[in-house]
Specification:
By secondary structure, the chain is mostly helical. The protein has nine helices and two strands; from the N terminus they run αααββαααααα.
């Protein structure tokens, strides 16, 4: 079977199955955290300042920042979806390397850092606090539970990193002036929002395929060791 088709079918199956797990939607905000941290990180790299980040219950988020006009704004607008996709690769790479515990610690540290630096009120603050406490609880429940929980988070982030750009592409076609980062990029360049949204989709799908390769490799390794 073609690897792209295999990855697509696997991703669709995983998206359906994870939605059967209670409260799985709540955990999908982790991908939003990665997305907004991508914007914040690039803002700081470009010598800008981040005022605050908001994480919303509908999985949306906003990063408020101050940045000089120019190419740096383009870089920051590109960062969100790209960083989100790269994080999904890193999570599956951690699973492949059997570093689930270390990965869970890193994710919790990022959530804590987000509270300290960027999120100080609202729904996002409570979500981050509960998420960190839950991670601590999972850590002490044993390796089996910890590994399953980590893999669930990895799949949820992977799905969201792909679904988000696809919805963005649809929005850029239906309402080009309300397509989030794609609209921002369109205002700063000569390219329409649909082109930027399509770029995000291509990057997300490429990253998803690479992430799934790490997952399949881990499965092959497990089978060969039995």
């Amino acid at each position: 079977m073609n690897r792209w088709l295999k990855a697509l079918l696997f991703l669709l199956g995983a998206a359906f199955l994870t939605r059967l797990i209670p409260f799985s939607g709540w955990f999908r905000i982790l991908d939003t955290m990665f997305h907004e941290l991508g914007h914040a990180l690039l803002t700081l790299i470009m010598s800008g300042s981040v005022l605050r980040i908001e994480l919303n219950p509908d999985h949306s988020g906003v990063t408020y920042s101050l940045l000089q006009p120019g190419w740096s704004q383009i870089t920051v607008s590109l960062a969100g979806y790209i960083v989100s996709s790269l994080c999904s690769i890193l999570m599956f790479y951690g699973y492949y390397k059997r570093k689930q515990t270390a990965g869970l610690i890193v994710i919790s540290a990022l959530a804590l850092l987000t509270i300290v630096l960027f999120v100080h009120s609202g729904y996002g603050l409570w979500w981050l606090l509960i998420f960190i406490l839950l991670n601590v609880l999972i850590y002490f429940l044993g390796e089996r539970v910890r590994n399953f929980y980590y893999l669930l988070l990895a799949f949820l982030c992977l799905e969201e990193s792909v679904v988000g750009p696809i919805f963005l592409l649809a929005q850029s076609i239906i309402s080009p002036d309300q397509a989030g980062d794609a609209t921002n990029l369109a205002h700063m360049t000569i390219l329409p929002s649909v082109v930027w949204a399509l770029l995000f989709v291509v990057i997300a799908c490429s990253c998803a395929r690479l992430a799934l390769q790490f997952y399949w490799k881990s499965g092959s390794r497990t089978l060969s060791s039995k």
